């Protein structure tokens, strides 16, 4: 009996207790072993999770399915990561038995959970099946930007978001199709979702139809989804045509009462969508708006096929936003780890502030050690992109349909990072490389290049540059290009970094193109042999840089040589290049005194010596009988040998403007040859200082020119134009020569016109203006008028009807000018005819002491595209808009009350000695004429007493920043009178973020003051959170430094109460209260 009791009860209990005690003691004595094992397992799990994240990202980008359990599994991994990080066996001495026990036990349990997760991942099946395109509730193919815990705090997105929202709110006859366009991963889909939510909350539409198109749309599925959104059930019919017809009838029935509104959203559009297939007609039915997201604005325009089409560009984040966004994914802030944070800032910069790239890299680096961060930054510096990031660019590149577009795109990768790439360089290189099919002239090649560039900009693979005539390439896009052209059939060598040690190990004899920045380089490798090389581009080579004598040996296939800022670069000779070299482009290079042997390159078609400061154009250049383009820009004091021009029988384009204070002088023989050359030239850039030089010259064939008559040509970097005429006449002597020399023919072709004629009193003195001919200024886009001392009025009314393309108008120092437009013959008075400047975007008026108005008093004036108005030194002007209640003859308003500028965003006013107000104190109706004003800058207006009217609420909808400098009479920025508000409470959402006040005197300028109301008045609910006041010697700045998810609210009403946060106190009807943020 005892034996049975022992075997069945005592022995098992003892065995259990022994194993349990052994296990618990193991936690103490083997804690280090448990922790080490846990960390090894964790390393395996981290590597696995990294692979899963990469797989997930690839599938998101490539429209492939992602297993349902992946997100949950990744969440568990993150939880275990945090748990493991809290377990440490470091610094636990032998005598700390309790701590050793806890560490060992926790590590053992964590190891078990890690193994469970590894096993769980092995059971997840990836089918990588294509996604079924359709409803937005399923996974979208456009990789929407999911947000970090901090949410969307992107102030830079406010402008495009509000612009898009306004377009959705507008009547159908103003905007019916809105396209959100931008680079892949910039956040288009996320903005679309926000717009949809706001539109839904505001009940702007009765139905929301949202489908994702994707790269491989399944139209039958899309049609069913649209039908369900409208009517709750799918469609019958087996074909796209049958279902489209059913959808059309559904739309018609829904809209038949004329009261319903429908927003149709097409997300992730990659190619033209036939809107008939989704039941819509062109033009769109009344009540329907179409919202699209796409990387390519041209695709959207083809889809919409309507004049009521608007593109809203979604750009990258600002630097501060991008850094914050990255920090929220990595958990690393400046306060947390300054060194790691700085590495993160550098990573963000290399990501080009692209949100999706930041998200992908930030997610990968979360909880990683600093060496992983440094390695990531180093890879980005060397253009080694993460696979998921590279995939974003690759997809856009593969959707470029035309080979020529791809060639130009890849060619842009030859230029240094962040450089302004001259489109003209692309033309000249492309011509030499024969990139363009079916073009026979440089004009055709330039048109083709510009078309390619515009296609690439529309596809967001290139970006517009602030410098006219240039484009830029995003850092990530450049990295993609460099990775692509460095291998395979391309084998290009591109190095604009440290080339001081560049040598044989970087050589590849199959290389097709080379582009190097040579700064710091002392010599080229002696065995520099590239038999397949078609282009070599070198930049910034110093005097110490030495080239081997046989530099061009074995380069028999070289077609293009481009040297920029090179000191004494090696020039080719005829025996080296007898057939293939087509383009030789030298820019700001210092040449040897004898370079005439270039004239032996008889097959050369493009020769540029721009800013090489050569002093002589030798007769040997006349041997280049196949030459189509000769560029001598900037080569002042140039002597041109006789016979050069006359022998260039194929020349199409000649550029020979001088440099600053250095003219190119023409001898009689040169002018005679130029006269003959003009019979064949299509492009000419030249300066004629003597009006007699124009005699017998014909400009009829020119379609591209920059011609200055009477003075040195002055370059204005305002816009890119093909044709510019600059005319300066100091006396009346040669005015008749303008007609004799047919200058009016040049005027008709000019896109940019710069006019300075001291004796001109009417426009007719310059050119004969026929009141019935509205085509004279039809091509004019940019008009500068300067120093016309006798000009009283610029445009007769009838001339304004022909200014349909004018975008920029600048008038300087015309001392007797009284008005911009004058009604000479009663053309408008009493007839209600409008003056419309359809495309005018920028208007600048400077130094006009007699100006009293811009337009006739009774005229209705439309400036529908005006975005910036700049005014300087207009001493007669007392207000910008009139006070209709003020009949004083002393009032001189720049505009009458019927001038509308609905897109005006920036107003700059400086040195207006008699300006008392911009708007009259009681004015409100003028705000309807400028609803989009965002930036107001006022300086040195010492009589200004009223910046804004007493009820500025509608103006505050879009106002973003205010800058006031040296306006001594201005006591308050907002001088608010509650008597102007009526009894209705006004609540306005504002976006004001910056106020700067710079003063000479010590008296402070208050942000706002309030008066009026019944007994007590209040200024309520102005959200001052995040505003910082910065005070300098004479400058006070109020700046909103933290951007709240919701905008500021101002609520003004008449009631009892205190003054709120800014100040407090009772305010009776006669009491004025002042406050500051």
Give a summary of the structure in a few sentences.
With 1077 residues, the protein is an alpha/beta fold. Helix content is 28%, strand content 19%.
Write the layout of secondary structure elements.
Elements: H1 2-29, H2 31-61, H3 70-85, H4 97-122, H5 158-169, E1 177-181, H6 188-201, E2 207-214, H7 219-231, H8 240-255, E3 262-269, E4 288-294, H9 297-304, E5 309-313, H10 319-330, H11 338-350, H12 355-365, H13 370-381, H14 387-398, H15 403-411, E6 421-422, H16 423-433, H17 442-458, E7 463-464, E8 470-472, H18 475-485, E9 493-495, E10 513-517, E11 535-541, E12 560-566, E13 583-587, E14 606-608, E15 616-617, E16 629-631, E17 639-640, H19 644-647, E18 653-655, H20 668-677, E19 683-688, E20 704-709, E21 723-729, H21 735-740, H22 743-749, E22 752-757, E23 782-786, E24 793-796, H23 797-800, E25 808-812, E26 819-822, E27 834-836, E28 842-846, E29 860-862, E30 868-872, E31 899-900, E32 906-910, E33 935-939, E34 961-965, E35 972-977, E36 986-990, E37 994-998, E38 1006-1011, E39 1018-1020, E40 1027-1031, E41 1035-1040, E42 1048-1053, E43 1073-1075
Parallel strand pairs: 1-4, 1-5, 2-3, 3-4, 9-10, 10-11, 11-12, 12-13, 13-14, 14-16, 15-17, 16-18, 18-19, 19-20, 20-21, 21-22, 22-23, 23-25, 24-26, 25-28, 27-29, 28-30, 29-31, 30-32, 32-33, 33-34, 34-37, 35-38
Antiparallel strand pairs: 6-8, 7-8, 36-42, 37-41, 38-43, 39-42, 40-41
Helix pairs in contact: 1-4, 2-3, 2-4, 2-14, 3-4, 5-6, 7-8, 10-11, 10-12, 11-13, 14-18, 15-17, 16-17
């Amino acid at each position: 009996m005892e034996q049975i009791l022992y075997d069945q009860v005592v022995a098992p209990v003892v065995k259990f207790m022994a194993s349990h005690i052994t296990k618990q003691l193991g936690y103490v004595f083997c804690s280090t072993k448990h922790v080490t094992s846990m960390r090894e397992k964790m390393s395996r799990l981290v590597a696995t999770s990294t692979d899963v994240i990469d797989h997930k990202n690839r599938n998101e980008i490539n429209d492939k399915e992602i297993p349902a359990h992946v997100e949950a599994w990744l969440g568990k991994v993150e939880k275990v990561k945090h748990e493991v990080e809290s377990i440490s066996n470091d610094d636990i001495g032998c005598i700390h038995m309790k701590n050793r026990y806890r560490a060992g036990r926790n590590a053992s349990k964590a190891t078990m959970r890690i193994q469970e997760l590894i096993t769980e991942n092995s059971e997840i099946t990836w089918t990588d099946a294509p996604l079924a395109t359709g409803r937005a509730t399923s996974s979208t193919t456009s990789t929407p930007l999911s947000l970090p815990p901090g949410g969307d705090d992107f102030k830079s997105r406010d402008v495009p978001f509000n612009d898009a929202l306004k377009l959705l709110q507008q009547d159908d006859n103003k905007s019916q199709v809105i396209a959100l366009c931008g680079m892949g991963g910039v956040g288009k889909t996320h903005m679309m979702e926000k717009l949809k939510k706001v539109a839904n909350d505001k009940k702007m539409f009765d139905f929301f139809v949202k489908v994702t198109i994707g790269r491989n749309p399944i139209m039958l599925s899309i049609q069913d989804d649209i039908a369900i959104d409208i009517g709750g059930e799918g469609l019958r019919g087996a074909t796209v045509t049958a279902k489209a017809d059913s959808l059309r009838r559904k739309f018609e029935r829904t809209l038949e009462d004329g009261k319903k509104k429908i927003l149709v959203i097409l997300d992730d559009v990659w190619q033209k969508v036939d809107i008939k297939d989704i039941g819509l007609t062109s033009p769109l039915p009344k009540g329907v708006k179409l919202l699209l997201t796409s990387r390519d604005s041209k695709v959207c325009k083809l889809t919409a096929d309507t004049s009521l089409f608007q593109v809203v560009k979604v750009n990258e984040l600002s630097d501060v936003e991008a850094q914050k966004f990255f920090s929220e994914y990595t958990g690393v802030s400046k306060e947390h780890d300054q060194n790691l944070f700085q590495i993160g800032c550098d990573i963000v910069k290399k990501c080009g502030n692209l949100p999706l790239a930041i998200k992908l890299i930030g997610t990968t680096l979360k909880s990683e050690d600093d060496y992983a961060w440094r390695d990531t930054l180093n890879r980005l510096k060397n253009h080694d992109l993460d696979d998921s990031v590279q995939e974003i660019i690759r997809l856009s590149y593969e959707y470029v349909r035309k080979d020529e577009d791809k060639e130009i795109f890849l060619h842009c990768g030859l230029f240094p990072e962040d450089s302004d790439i001259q489109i003209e360089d692309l033309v000249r290189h492309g011509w030499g490389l024969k990139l363009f099919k079916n073009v026979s002239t440089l004009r055709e090649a330039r048109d083709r290049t510009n078309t390619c560039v515009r296609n690439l900009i529309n596809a967001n693979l290139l970006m517009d540059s602030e410098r006219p005539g240039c484009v830029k390439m995003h850092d990530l896009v450049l990295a993609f290009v460099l990775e692509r052209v460095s291998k395979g059939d391309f084998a290009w060598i591109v190095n604009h970094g440290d080339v001081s040690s560049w040598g044989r190990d970087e050589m590849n004899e199959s290389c097709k193109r080379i582009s190097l920045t040579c700064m710091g380089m002392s010599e080229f490798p002696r065995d520099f042999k590239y038999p397949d090389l078609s282009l070599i581009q070198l930049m910034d080579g110093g005097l110490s840089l030495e080239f081997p004598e046989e530099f061009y040996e074995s380069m028999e296939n070289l077609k293009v040589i481009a040297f920029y800022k090179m000191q004494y670069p090696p020039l080719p000779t005829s025996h080296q290049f007898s057939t293939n070299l087509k383009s030789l482009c030298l820019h700001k290079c210092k040449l040897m005194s004898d370079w005439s042997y270039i004239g032996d390159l008889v097959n050369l078609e493009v020769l540029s010596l721009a800013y090489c400061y050569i002093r002589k154009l030798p007769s040997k250049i006349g041997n280049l009988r196949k030459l189509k383009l000769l560029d001598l820009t900037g080569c002042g004091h140039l002597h041109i040998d006789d016979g050069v021009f006359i022998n260039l029988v194929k020349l199409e384009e000649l550029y020979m403007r001088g440099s600053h204070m250095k003219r190119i002088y023409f001898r009689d023989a040169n002018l005679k040859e130029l006269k003959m050359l003009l019979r064949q030239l299509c492009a000419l850039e030249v300066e004629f200082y003597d009006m007699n030089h124009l005699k017998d010259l014909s400009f009829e064939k020119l379609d591209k020119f920059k011609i200055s008559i009477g003075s040195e040509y002055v370059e204005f970097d305002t816009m890119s134009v093909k044709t510019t005429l600059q005319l300066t006449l100091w006396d009346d002597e040669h005015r008749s020569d303008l007609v004799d020399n047919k200058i009016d023919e040049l005027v008709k072709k000019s896109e940019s016109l710069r006019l300075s004629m001291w004796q001109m009193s009417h426009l007719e003195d310059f050119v004969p203006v026929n009141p019935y001919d509205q085509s004279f200024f039809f091509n004019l886009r940019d008009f500068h008028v300067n120093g016309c001392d006798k000009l009283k009025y610029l445009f007769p009314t009838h001339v304004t009807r022909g200014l349909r393309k004018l975008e920029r108008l600048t008038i300087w120092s015309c001392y007797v000018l009284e008005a911009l437009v004058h009604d000479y013959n009663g053309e408008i008075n009493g007839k209600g005819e409008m003056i419309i400047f359809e495309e005018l975007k920028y208007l600048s008026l400077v130094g006009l002491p007699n100006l009293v108005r811009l337009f006739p008093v009774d005229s209705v004036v439309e400036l529908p595209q005006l975005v910036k108005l700049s005014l300087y030194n207009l001493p007669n002007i007392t207000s910008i808009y009139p006070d209709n209640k003020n009949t004083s003859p002393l009032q001189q308003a720049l505009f009458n009350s019927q001038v509308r500028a609905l897109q005006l965003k920036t107003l700059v006013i400086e040195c207006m000695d008699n300006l008392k107000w911009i708007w009259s104190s009681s004015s409100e109706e003028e705000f309807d004429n400028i609803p989009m004003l965002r930036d107001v800058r006022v300086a040195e207006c010492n009589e200004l007493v009223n910046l804004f009217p007493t009820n500025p609420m509608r103006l505050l909808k879009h106002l973003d920043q205010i800058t006031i400098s040296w306006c001594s009479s201005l006591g308050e920025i907002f001088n608010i009178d509650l008597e102007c508000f009526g009894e209705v409470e006004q609540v306005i959402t504002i976006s004001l973020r910056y106020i700067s006040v710079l003063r000479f005197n010590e008296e402070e300028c208050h942000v706002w003051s309030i008066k009026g109301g019944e007994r007590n008045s209040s200024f309520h609910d102005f959200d001052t959170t995040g505003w910082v006041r910065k005070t300098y010697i004479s400058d006070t700045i109020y700046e909103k430094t933290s951007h709240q998810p919701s905008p500021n609210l101002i609520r003004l009403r008449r009631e009892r109460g205190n003054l709120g946060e800014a100040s407090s106190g009772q305010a009776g009807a006669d009491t004025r209260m002042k406050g500051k943020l």
